[in-house]
Amino acid sequence: MVEDQALDRVYRIGQKKEVTTTRYIVKDTLEENVRNQQTEKRNLAEQAFNMTRKHDDWIQV
């Protein structure tokens, strides 16, 4: 999450040149476990939003 925000910020501040980022994740570490959990949560949230969009006639404003 914090990394995503930092990467997004690079482009918001008007960066014109190409930016290359590299992430090093060490196998069998807490960092790898956290990264996997974040990915799973992100996928679940995306699925939930996609379901909502498909059934937008259920939502009354």
Major β-sheet, in short?
none
**End-to-end span in angstroms?**
30 Å
Radius of gyration, in angstroms, nearest whole number: 17 Å
What overall geometry do the principal axes of the alpha carbons give?
flat
Counted beta strands: 0
Average pLDDT works out at: 79
Q: How many DSSP helices? A: 2
Low-confidence stretches: none
Report helical residue fraction: 55-70%
Summing up helix and strand content along with how strands pair, one would put the structural category as mainly alpha
Order of helices and strands, N to C? Answer: HH
- As a percent range, the share of strand residues is under 5%
Jot down its keywords.
single chain; 61 residues; mainly alpha; flat
Detailed description of the structure:
This protein has a domain at 20-54. It contains 2 helices and no strands. The chain has helices spanning 2-12, 30-54. The radius of gyration is 17 Å and the shape is flat. The mean pLDDT is 79. One of its GO terms (cellular component) is nucleus.
Topology overview:
Blueprint: H1 2-12, H2 30-54
Keywords: ATP-binding, Helicase, Hydrolase, Nucleotide-binding
GO biological process, one term: DNA repair
InterPro entries: P-loop_NTPase, SNF2_RAD54_helicase_TF
